[in-house]
Amino acid sequence: MKNATILCIEGNHADKPTFASALQKKGFRVEVASSGSEALSQLSDADPDIVVINAASLRSSGGRICQSLRKESKTLPLLLIVDKGNLPEKSAADALLNLPFTPQKLINRIRLLLPSDGKNVLHAGPIRLDIEHRRVRCLGRNERLTPRLASLLRVLMEHKGEVVERESLFKRVWETNYTGDTRTLDVHISWLRKAIELDSDHPRFLRTIRGVGYRLDV
């Protein structure tokens, strides 16, 4: 994935290697946090594609940090870097790297954990829709959509910032000219908000334009 965002949790102990600068040189967008609590506070704004926890630089096993991050997102990839003598008893990380290793080995492992990004992926602000696999990623969350929801989101993303009229949206997604009853559209909009919004009752992205339709604000 090009231009992926990495949230890198690192300390600054001189005797331990750091990797943020090496990742930046390879073209990744890198946000740095100096502790697990700082990383949690940055999670929403940074919207990382992966979190690298350099537990060795924090002189910790990283176990608690991984657990805290996993509570916030069940699907966000976590890569844990540890000293061989300081392995966590249990880890919520998706991958583990023992020091020492080269920066290239770290980059290779990161790329394996990143979601694929190709012609079948749409981007709109923080929203990323994998059309082929019907998966949407937004603000650290990763959800699988039904075919209808994926089609609905695709239309809204293709017209981001524009008001899409209810009848037009219904015709395109349901592939019909009958628009006598579009209440099912409202239900699907509600389901879609649960997939992409932090608070579906107070949507930030998917707005209702009363009497007209819907608009995706990103």
Short characterization:
The chain has 218 residues and is α/β, with parallel strands linked by helices.
Description:
The chain has helices at 20-25, 36-46, 63-72, 103-113, 147-158, 166-174, 183-196, and strands at 5-9, 29-33, 50-54, 78-82, 95-98, 121-124, 127-130, 135-138, 141-144, 163-165, 206-209, 213-216. The protein is an alpha/beta fold. The protein has two domains: 5-113, Response regulator (Rossmann fold, 3-Layer(aba) Sandwich), CATH 3.40.50.2300; 121-216, Orthogonal Bundle (Arc Repressor Mutant, subunit A). The protein has a five-stranded parallel beta sheet, with helices on both faces. A four-stranded antiparallel beta sheet has the order 6-7-8-9, with helices on one face. Strands 10-12-11 form a three-stranded antiparallel beta sheet. β1 (5-9), α1 and β2 form a beta-alpha-beta unit. The mean pLDDT is 88.
Number of strands: 12
Name of the CATH superfamily of the largest domain? Response regulator
CATH architecture of the largest domain: 3-Layer(aba) Sandwich
Mean pLDDT: 88
Instruction: Point out poorly predicted stretches.
Output: none
H and E order? EHEHEHEEHEEEEHEHHEE
CATH third-tier fold name of the largest domain: Rossmann fold
- How many discrete structural domains? 2
| Alpha plus pi helix count | 7
Q: Class by helix and strand content?
A: alpha/beta
The CATH class of the largest domain: Alpha Beta
* Main sheet specs: 5 strands, parallel
Rg over alpha carbons: 20 Å
Helicity range of the residues? Answer: 25-40%
> Strand-residue fraction?
15-25%
